[in-house]
Design brief:
There is one protein chain. It contains 24 helices and no strands. By secondary structure, the protein is mostly helical. It has a domain of about 120 residues: Tetratricopeptide repeat domain (Serine Threonine Protein Phosphatase 5, Tetratricopeptide repeat), CATH 1.25.40. α3 packs antiparallel against α4 and α12 packs antiparallel against α13. The termini are far apart.
Length: about 400
């Protein structure tokens, strides 16, 4: 409570100091009227801070009736109206405040926000032009100025603003990205390319910028250019897996899935390359093999998964991946064993348990089915299907291998 009181007192004191220059007479004294106006202003802001905007607005309106030149009151009332989505009223009062005190940057920024709400982007841009002139070292003002120019349909002027900022701060990632996007949007691909080239030349050790350039080349279907940049990335950082995979994937549409997977061998054999990155690269093809029943693709994927077994031993996700691919190639008993290994290494992934249950049924391994479903009941007490499978396995495990669980039986 003490902190809250101090905070309110400090805030109101700040308002008081803000308005003191308005109320002082030429001889440096304050009239009784000015003191009462100040008290009214403080009272209004007290209500605003307490969330009673209606009462605060009423007092600020009363204050403005007494003194139309009270820009602080106009500004505070405009803020209240903006919060109430009374945009037209907020706009009029914000313009009034900024007109009375044109040197106040906060009034101009607030007015620009109201202009934006009303889709008056050109007017907002003019305000930020004034703000840049008044504070040329504030980078954010340049970005806002350029943004409003773009929204107003003036991209050429926006580029001029970016050029002006670049002249002050030099080549900068955010600046280069925005210039690149504007050139690209206007169809000037040569200047768009030049922006990224300049960024890469300014920071030659930063491979993120080279990736931007390579991505642009791929977007423009400049495959030789993209390859050259990816090779440069690998020369700069031999452990950049993203560049390795991108370089391998460029030729895959023409060469075919099998050739692409074979091109991944050096990457999969490299223990320094992240395991998750390796798996991520082949998952789309695993899904494709499952959807199309492509046995050749599945076996090529299984070959890569076997490499992962050697390079990244005792990894649950590798065991599960091998289980998936063995299942796709029809080797169900081996797949079941790999799922068992995966669960022993990490028993937290329920989808692996589900695969194990299904394979146990398909291979008529009911003893294993009962054993693992009972274990799963402790780990996944909220999975009703586990209890149902356990009950079915105990009751029906002596049925013929061709039988299936009740949910798979024809009605």
């Amino acid at each position: 409570m003490i902190l809250s009181t101090k905070y309110c007192f400090s805030t109101l004191a700040a308002f008081l100091l803000l308005c003191l220059p308005l109320m002082a007479q030429e001889d440096g004294r304050f009239s009784e009227k000015k003191i009462k106006d100040q008290e009214l202003y403080i009272e209004a802001n007290k209500y605003r801070l307490l969330g009673n905007h209606e009462k605060a607005a009423e007092l600020l309106q009363e204050l403005l009736k007494k003194d139309r030149q009270n820009h602080a009151a106009a500004y505070e009332l405009a803020r209240i109206y903006a919060d109430q989505n009374r945009n037209a009223d907020a706009l009029n009062l914000a313009k009034q405040a900024a007109g009375i005190d044109p040197a106040n940057q906060w009034y101009k920024k607030f007015l620009a926000d109201i202009y934006q709400r009303n889709n008056l982007f050109a007017e907002a841009a003019l305000l930020y032009e004034e703000l840049v002139t008044a504070s040329p070292s504030d980078e954010n003002n340049y970005y806002k100025w350029a943004y409003f120019l773009v929204q107003a349909g003036q991209p050429v002027k926006a580029l001029q603003v970016y050029e002006s900022l670049e002249g002050r701060i030099g080549i900068h990632e955010e600046l280069s990205r925005r210039k690149h996007a504007l050139y690209l949007g206007s169809g000037d691909t040569q200047k768009a390319e030049l922006e990224l080239l300049r960024l890469c030349e300014a920071f030659p050790a930063n491979t993120d910028y080279l990736h931007l350039l390579a991505g642009f080349y791929r977007q423009m279907e400049n495959i030789p250019g993209a390859k050259a940049v990816y090779q440069k990335i690998i020369e700069t950082d031999p452990n950049d897996t993203k560049a390795f995979f991108a370089l391998s994937s460029i030729d895959s549409p023409a060469a075919g899935d099998a050739a692409y997977l074979q091109s991944l061998d050096p990457i999969f054999l490299n223990p320094q390359v992240d395991l998750d990155e390796k798996i991520k690269q082949i998952l789309p093809l695993v899904e494709k093999a499952a959807a199309t029943n492509d046995d050749i693709l599945a076996r090529e994927l299984l070959r890569l998964a076997s490499i992962l077994d050697r390079i990244h031993p005792a990894q649950a996700k590798v065991c599960a991946l091998n289980g998936d691919l063995l299942y796709l190639t029809g080797e169900k008993e081996k797949a079941l064993e790999r799922y068992r290994q995966a669960i022993e290494l990490d028993d937290s992934v329920f989808s692996v348990w589900e695969q194990l249950f299904q394979l146990a049924v398909q291979t008529a391994d009911y003893t294993s089915l009962v054993f693992y479903t009972e274990k799963a009941m402790d780990l996944f007490p909220n999975q009703v299907s586990v209890f149902f499978t356990t009950a079915w396995a105990i009751a029906d495990r002596k049925i013929t291998p061709k039988a299936s669980p009740p949910w798979n039986r024809p009605s």
